[in-house]
What we know:
Blueprint: H1 2-7, E1 11-15, H2 21-25, E2 33-38, H3 41-51, E3 57-60, E4 77-83, H4 89-95, E5 96-107, H5 113-118, H6 130-139, E6 142-156, H7 159-168, H8 182-195, E7 198-211
Parallel strand pairs: 1-2, 1-4, 2-3, 4-5
Antiparallel strand pairs: 5-7, 6-7
Amino acid sequence: MARGLMSSSNAALDLGTGGGEILLSIEDVSPQLVVATEEYAPNVKLAHERLAPFGIEVVKTDDSDLEQKLPFADEKFDLVIDRHTCFNALEVARVLKPDGVFLTEQVDGRDCFDLCQAFGRMPQWMFFTLDYVLDRIESSGLAVEFAKEWEGRMVFKDVGALVYYLKAVPWIVPGFKVETHMECLLKLQDRIDDEGELSFSRRLFILKAVKV
């Protein structure tokens, strides 16, 4: 979907570009003006190295703030894309031109709920659901054209793989360490011994909106 929208865009913004992976995958259809934002310092450096050769500017922002102000002029872009990054709907609407498109895929705040529970935690963003985002989008003056939720499962065959995952995505169980969470890990190992695997919930949603 992003590829098709990018091919008809004149000025695009990628919120939370990470290492620039999405933009690199559709670089062949990118408009003349493309700007990306990113919060995580190592990713800012990586994205700049990858995207600068294509004339794409990378701007450091606070992508974890739902009220963040975007450092761009009003009606600068006709397309804003966002994959798994917080956004301020009012700011997205402000920087979009009339008839501009906002496309986002988000992790539902209840994602990995049962995995968090296994470590005595609750997800930090439980309120962040499609309904919550739709309310903010519609209040900002954007008209939702498409919205869809997805639910699935992720499976681990051994605890070592789960440990690797939790270290790679530290926001699921903040402060996770094998030494301090050994009791929880042993209980999960017992589950594997009994059931053959560990299965945890995943929840995502996607939406497309237009500035009217």
